[in-house]
Amino acid sequence: MNCSETLLTARNLVVARGGAQVLSVPEFDLNRQETVALIGPNGAGKSSLLLALATLLPTASGEIRYHGEPVAASGHAADYRRRIAMVFQEPLLFDTTVFDNVASGLKLRGIASSEIRERVNSCLERFHITHLADRGARRLSGGEAQRTSLARAFATRPEVILLDEPFAALDPPTRQALMDDLEQVLRESGTAALIATHDQSEALRLADRMVVMNNGAIIQAGTPAEVMTNPANTFVASFVGMENLLTGTVTAIIDGLLVLDVAGQHLEIVASGVVGERVVLCTRPENVVVTTGDPDNRTSARNVFTGRVTRIVPFGPVNKLYLDCGFPLVASVTGQSLAELGITNGSSVFASFKATAVHLFRKG
Question: What is the pTM for the complete model shown?
Fold first, then answer.
């Protein structure tokens, strides 16, 4: 849903707390109607970047521009704050009714009473809380409170909305339902959004672009497909779910394939490299196929290994199989396949993956 017009830019942004630098972002842009997900572990700097962009956190240096104008410029800061909204992980609601909470930002802006009622009712309906209009904020569940917080933010019709882990405190069904509603509202309103999350499924669901952060810095930015399939380094690879990280040495190059030695095992992958070079390979558990019978010539995968199941861990509809193939390997297998194959802890299996299913980094 993104557009090429840039709404919000940050250059050489530095934030320090207690004398220590917690954020250093040389460059960041948010485009019109674009949804960007900031992903990374706790303490990566996601919230600090959001708060700095919202001018709620002082910056040690750098510049923020909105529609090309410096936010700090005289007269522009107030206009900027009126045109953005922020939603926090813990809803910050007034001790009054849901209707009055949603109306609060409009009242501060001096909007006419008739328009306030129209906007509030529209947002209550969008987030399915019309029936809660007269209920006090202290009597709301966590999901209802967050719906109220989102309705209040969108009632002001912001050009940009900043969301800091808005679903983190919610149970899975509530989180899923609220994500559905937020996705629809963003699409219908055309609001640009920057959402901080450590949950990559949220990022994949909502974002046009993903920005991976760690230690107060942006490590990689790109479309979700680019980040998920071509991570910039081992940190990003591990964070986006490439649990299989293997160190090896290039031993030959044959017909455009790199031949590698990994813990004494022979691997072939599609990549470029130099003989003798040390590399790190990564692939997703879902790219690893597990069978109990020797696949022999029945698979197009060039890399087939015998292994033993050392651990089985359920993850919702799939199970993670931890394998010892002379090197550690993780595979994803559905519960049905697991039962049909009769795989248990200690089972001997064959694990395979294609030469094209591996991403490579130069070691160091």
Answer: 0.88
